[in-house]
Amino acid sequence: MYKVFFITFGCKVNQYETESLKTSFQKxxxxxSGSPDGADVIVINSCTVTEYGDNDVIATLRKMRKKYPSxxxxxxxxxxxxxxxNLEKLSGADIVTGTKNRKDTLRLVCEYLEDRERRxxxxxxxxxxxxxxxxxxxxxxxxxxxxxxQDGCNQxxxxxxxxxxxGRCRSRTLExxxxxxxxxxxxxxxxxxxxxxxxxxxxxEHGTNLADAVEICSAVxxxxxxxxxxxxxxxxxxxxxxxxxxxxxxxxxxxLSLQSGCDRTLKAMNRHYTTAEYYKLVRxxxxxxxxxxxxxxxxxxxxxxxxxxxxxxxxxVEKIGFSRVHVFRYSRRQGTPxxxxxxQIPEHIKTARAVEMNGIAEKSRKKYMDSLIGKTVExxxxxxxxxxxxxxxATDYTLIKIPLENSEKSLRNQIFYVTIEESHxxxxxxxxxxxx
Length: 436
Fold this sequence. Notes:
42% of the residues are buried. The chain is an alpha/beta fold. The protein is 33% helix and 23% strand. The mean pLDDT is 95.
C-alpha cells in the first residue's frame, strides 16, 4: 500500500480540495500519512495570492525534493495554474497539475507509479466551464467542516492573480449542496462553513443565490450552525440579507472584504464599491443581525497610495469597528495591471504602514472584545488547550476559553451557552450556563 502525504497552502478552498483529494486517494487504496517521512507520494497544494506565498511554495518543493529524493512529488493548485507558461521553478516536481480537473490528480499519480515518466497537466479554463464536484471530504479531526460551493472570479481586481488561477465564476448545484450537508451530519459535524473563491456570487449562472444554499443546508436535520466564508460587498442585497436573517442557525459573523478604506485606492484596485456604500452595507447588516461581528482584509502599500490615502484607510477601519482585521502588504503579481503601475511603494514603507494599521486593528478588536463582557453566547467547543481550558468559538467567531478541571470530561463537539466574564487579547473567558 502506497502512503501519501499532503501539504496545503492558502485559503479554505484549498483546504477543502486537499481533504477531497485525501478521500479520493483513500478510496483507491492509498494510506494517508501524517508525515512526509516514509511517504511514497507527497502532494503540495499550492497558493499564489502573494509573492511571499510563491516563495514559500517553491522553498517547500525544493526542501521535499532534497530530503525525500525517492518520493513522487506532486505540485498542484493555484501556482502552476497561474504560471503555466513559466514552470521551470517546478522542475523538482514529478507531476505538475493546476486547479482544473482536480480529480485527474489520482490518475496521474497512478500512471506515474507505473511508468515513472514525468507529467505536466495544466489545462486552461474556458468560457462555460462547470463546477467540479469532488469526493466528499471527511475533515476527520475537525468539529466543523468546510463546504466549497463556488469557484472562480469575474472581478479582475488590478492586484489579483486569482481569476487567472481559478477561471470564471461557477457554482455547484443546490442538490449537491444538500447531499454534502447530509454527509457532513452523518460524520458528526455540527457546523458547516460555506466557502468559495467569490462566495457572494454563488448561483449567478443558475438563477439562484447564496441564500438558497444557506436555506437548503439549514433544512438538513442535524445542522446546528452555518458559517459564511469571505464575502464581496457588491452582491449583499436587501433581499439576500432579509432571507439570511431568517435562518436561525446562521452564524452572526461576516467576513466582508474591504481591501482599502480610501475611495481613490479602491478605484485604482478596480473594487466595485465606495467606502460610503460599504458603510451603508455594514449598517444594513447590523440592522438584520444586531449582535454580529465583522472581520475583513486590509491591504497597505498599493501602488500610488499616498500618506493621506493611508490615513483615510486607517480612519475608515476604525470607524467600522471590526472584531478582527487581516492586514497585509501589497505584493506585485506579474500579469496583473497593478504590477506595472507607477508609484510602487518601497517595502520599508509598506512594513511601517502595516504596523500602524495593525495598531488600529488591535484597538478595534479590544473594543469589540470588551463589549462582549456580560453577554451570554453560544459556543461550539472544539478541543482542549493542553490541560488548562476547554476552547471553542462563539457564533461571532470569538474564541472562548473555559477553565478545565482535570476530572472534567471533554466538551468537544458540544454546544453550550456561556456567559463572558473577561476579555483578553485573542480570546474571552467565561462560565458555562447550560447546554443547547
